[in-house]
Each structure stands twice: as C-alpha cells, then as structure tokens.
Amino acid sequence: MTAKTSRNESQGRGSIPSVWARRRREPDQPALSRAAIVREAVVMLDADGIEALSMRKLGARLNAGATSLYRHVATKDELLELAVDEVLAEVVVPAADAADWRAAVTEAAGSFRATALRHPWLAPMLGQAGLAYLGPNLMAFSERLADLFAAAGFPEPSRAIDTLLAYAIGMSVSEAAWLTMVARSGESEADFVARLMPTAREAAADHRHLADSYAAPPPDPAGLRDDKFAYGLDIVVEGLARRLGG
Amino acid sequence: MTAKTSRNESQGRGSIPSVWARRRREPDQPALSRAAIVREAVVMLDADGIEALSMRKLGARLNAGATSLYRHVATKDELLELAVDEVLAEVVVPAADAADWRAAVTEAAGSFRATALRHPWLAPMLGQAGLAYLGPNLMAFSERLADLFAAAGFPEPSRAIDTLLAYAIGMSVSEAAWLTMVARSGESEADFVARLMPTAREAAADHRHLADSYAAPPPDPAGLRDDKFAYGLDIVVEGLARRLGG
DNA sequence: CGAAGATGCGAACACTGTACGCAGGCCGGA
DNA sequence: TCCGGCCTGCGTACAGTGTTCGCATCTTCG
Lengths: 246, 246
Description:
The structure is a homodimer.
Chain A: H1 2-11, H2 34-48, H3 55-61, H4 76-88, H5 101-118, H6 122-129, H7 136-152, H8 157-185, H9 189-203, H10 208-213, H11 221-244
Helix pairs in contact in A: 2-4, 4-6, 5-7, 5-8, 5-11, 6-8, 7-8, 8-11
The structure holds a DNA duplex.
C-alpha cells in the first residue's frame, strides 16, 4: 500500500494525465505474474489468516492495483485453489517400501499435519473445496500414497488413502482451528487454555466424563496435541494393517 | 424481502413519519427471537449454502430489518455458532451398551455423517471453528460418546472420541464439499461426474494409480460414497478394538 | 397517566469481489 | 522508421457485505 502510494506520488500518475507522467516498472520488482501473486498470497494467508486476504491488500503488497491481479487469476477462489496446491508441495511422502509401509504411511500423515499447521488456512480450505481440486501437487501427493499402499499389498489403494486422509484432514482441521483461535487471542497456548478453563468447566458441568477431562489444565498443550494425533494415527494404521491381513 | 416491502408499503412506514403510520406486528408472525432467527438461518443455510446467508436476507425472511437481528445475536459469527449447535441436536448416539459397543459407535458416526450431509455447511463450519464450540448439543454429543467408550472399557474415552470424530469429520467435510459442488452445478451427481471425467483423467495422466481409479465412471456415486465411509469407519473401529485388547 | 426499558430499523461507514474501458508499453511487419 | 495489434496495469464504478448509531415506537410497570 505504501509502496503503491509512493509510486503514484513520485511519478505523478493517476488522475492527471501528462506526457511526463510515464509509467516505468522498477526493474528490481519482478513484474506481476501468477507465480508471484500466489506466492505472496500464501505469505499473507500465513501471516494474518484467511479473512485478512483481500484482493486490494494483496495487490498493494505487490505494488499493483487490486484489479491488475485479474489479468493473471480469474477469480479469488481460483487464487485460493492455487495457494492450496502451492503449499501441498511441502508434504513429503516417503518412497514406496513394502517392508515397512506402516512407518512410511505414518510419516506421510505426519508431514501432512505439519504442513497443515504451518499453514492453518489449508485444512479448512481443503474442507471447503474438497479433494476435487485436481491440482498437480495434490495429484502427486495422492499418487505417492497410492504407490505406498499398492506396494504394501492393498488391493484397492484408493480406499486406504481415503481413510488415512479423512483422519489426517479431520484432525488437522480441528487443530488448525484451535491454533487460529489461540493466535487471535494473542496469548500463549497455555494461557489461552487457562483462561478458557472456567467457561469450559461450566459448559461441561452436568456431563460426567467431560467434567473429568476438564478437571486439570494440561501442562503441555502442544505436546498433548502431538500425542493425540499420533494415538489416533496409530489406531488407523493398525486398522489398515488388520484389513491387509496382518 | 417481499414481505418486508409489502409491510412498509401497506402501512406507509419508513421515510414519512406520520401519526397514522403506526407499526403493528402481524400476530401470526411470532416476533423476532433468538430461536426463530437461528431456525430460519438454518433453513437458509440448507437451501443456498453458507455464502448465500447475509444478515439482510435473513432479516427480510423474518419480516424484519437487517439490523434488528443484532438485538438478539451479537454478531454473524455467533449466529453461525448457534446454527451449528442447533443442527448438532440431530445427531443420535445410542445408549451405552458394553456388549456391542462397536455397533453403537458405528451408528453414532453414521448419524453424524448423515447430519453433516443433510446440512452441508456443518462440516466446513466445524472445521473452521473447531470443536472448541462448547455449545450444549456438542457437549451432550461428546458426553454420550464418552459414555459409550467408557462402558466399552476404554481407559481414556476422550482419546477414542478424538480419533473417531477426526475420521468422521474428515470424511464428512470432503463429502459435503463434493455435494456442494454438485448442487451448484445443477446436474445430477452422475452427470456431474461424467462431465468432470475428462478433466480428471487429464490431470491424472502421468500418475499410474490415479489413472486406474479414473478409468471408468462409477455407476452409482452415492452408493460408492456410502461404501467408502463404511469401509474407513470399519478400519477405525477395528483399530480401536485392537487398542482395547480385543 | 407517565416514566423506563426493550425492541425495531433507516442511514451511514468502511469494506469486499469484480466488470469495464482506457492508457501505456511491447513486439512483429512494412 | 513507423505503425498496428496485443498484452498488461489500473481508476472508476457497482452491488453487496457486516456492523454502529441514534431515533422512533411498543410494552410494561409504578
């Protein structure tokens, strides 16, 4: 925004047309391009969450007007699709290894979760648009998972993929939402938990089991989340192994 | 909107203040109330999806101005929280039965999925706000699940709940997103699949396993979704059973 | 009857995504 | 060298959003 203003001022472009007010692109700024737009969108999404991303702000960051973006991107939704696929490139899936497919699958799911937590807008986004994205990185991710399960001997790898991903997405989506709340509060996770505790306890008042789980504030919330994910992942993988005929 | 306009016209209220232009509430319309607002919001969400719900449109449907809603609801987000909790009341969880906890758990998850598909905005919403909602119906739902798992002998029922719900949410979120896309297309699910097929095949071109799964269009997409959910659910429940020591 | 509080709402504000059409730079052909 | 067509950027504008404010009205109680 500041950059754009300064350009307008320094070059006198805008409302007053004039021969001297010519437009000259700064050579260091690498021009507007789809790749640059998507990259900057990811940065903004990471920094301030999904509802803080507007075409105008994004344009300003790129020293461009809001509507210039539409030369490279059809619509905001399309831009978000591109952003999703962009960060999905970060998910690493180990190469197929029939001997220890359980470790490989566990690692892949963990990498997905890590990516989703690094970009807390990813999981809700995947949720809103589903897996019908067809972006190249999502395809590659699925294919590598399919490799893994096929090598392990699953007759229908896509079934196993769907199950594993449903778990990973479900867990990540909840976790990302939680982390977003925490981030918005400005407090540390532990402080936030402590502040929420009374309300939670009241809401769980007439529920025996829930009251138990809200009894004491957890000492290490982040570690607890790791455990929770690992615990459930183990259960899913165990179930898959049984299905395979272990 | 039409209703509101007609009231304004018929009673002459609005821009011209006049002694005769008095406001009289139709006695059949049961006045604005939080419950009525939430109920109507759910109807609108079900009908046209989440991005079609605006405070103005909702107000119009209730023969009220947009800003009147704010007397009963602090903000739109709060309204959405209330709507989420409202529909969560539809999820039925069988009473605790130690003998056949697997069937009970399976049924609970199925009911959750059915609810999520009946209200396709629910799953994305739960994803965006997480399970930190603390609404009474969500609490009751969790408590009943905890009952189930505790009766089955799980030492930490909350762990089992988290795992099961992560799977159910992940699967439902994807499915709801898919159904939303289908609905927006105006076509039947089978037709939509057929139209998407070429694009999908192209995107999967250099991926062996994916290409296989896109080889032929499925004859019964809805039934296939049911199968997929049941398959994964079975795996999760199996894993839980193993963990229990069965 | 009259005061106090609850309720509805019109107008306004600061935003949003996006369509349109103009202006200027870039590039291939005469 | 000039010229025409294309690609790119963007100012303006439009319809819509959530929400605030202050006024008008209704309801209720003393």
